[in-house]
Amino acid sequence: KRLGEGKKPATVNRELSCLRSLINVAIKRDIYSGRNPVSGMKFLEENNQIERILTLEEEVRLLNSSPLHLKPIIITALNTGLRKSEILHLKWENVDLKNDIVTIQVESSKNKRQKRIPLNSKMKALMNSLYAISGTTEYVFLNSRGMPFKDYNSIKTSFSNACKKAHITGLRFHDLRHSCASRMVENGANIVAVSKILGHSTLSITMRYLHPDKSLIEAVEALNIIKEGPKF
């Protein structure tokens, strides 16, 4: 039923997991008697592959279609790989403009691990520009009214409207993180370094952004020396 409502397998699995935990608590407290009906259920297979990568041409259109408060947020996502919540809740106390490093504290990190992200030249210029605007406030990014964002859904409407205006379909904000990772890998960045920047718990998660290198491509291209294949 939930799939029929447009929910993704990952969302359904999280709901089932939550329901299973609640029933287990109820059983322990003698509020519910009997077997947990969720315990025997098989969770849905999740497709965690990359769904959408933003092209450079689309990036230009998206930025040109975005309101002033949204542009720096998009630029930050594409140049740091930070998650939406990490960006919107970033405080100036965690931005080191002298050493050009942003620190995501444990309480703000999805994996509950501190991570330090170096700023590239575009981000250095952006942060210095933002500091001139919001440097006296606690948070780096402010909404159109000059106030901190309340939650990670605060830019949902403005991002959706910007995509529509730019004629970009099928793009989620989280895909900007995917785009950042893919761009780093495609330009020869070390996969271990990319994994640390993204804050992945294991290297295998980052490996999905890794494309066959030149030596592998040359190896399979060498098969072209066979002029004729078997006839079927």
Description:
There is one protein chain. The protein is mainly alpha-helical and 232 residues long. Helices cover 44% and strands 4% of the residues. The protein has helices at 9-28, 56-65, 71-80, 84-88, 121-134, 156-165, 174-186, 191-198, 203-206, 214-221, and strands at residues 95-96, 101-104, 115-118. Strands 1-2-3 form a three-stranded antiparallel sheet, with no helix packed on it. Helix 3 (71-80) packs antiparallel against helix 5. The radius of gyration is 22 Å and the shape is globular. The termini are far apart.
- Largest beta-sheet details: 3 strands, antiparallel
pLDDT < 50 runs, ≥5 residues: none
Query: How would you sum up the global shape?
Result: globular
- In which order are the strands of the major sheet placed? 1-2-3
Structural class: mainly alpha
Chain-averaged pLDDT: 83
Q: Which value, in Å, is the CA radius of gyration?
A: 22 Å
H-E order: HHHHEEEHHHHHH
Quantity of strands, as a count: 3
User: Count of DSSP helices?
Assistant: 10
Helix content: 40-55%
Distance between the termini: 46 Å
**Percentage of β-strand residues:** under 5%
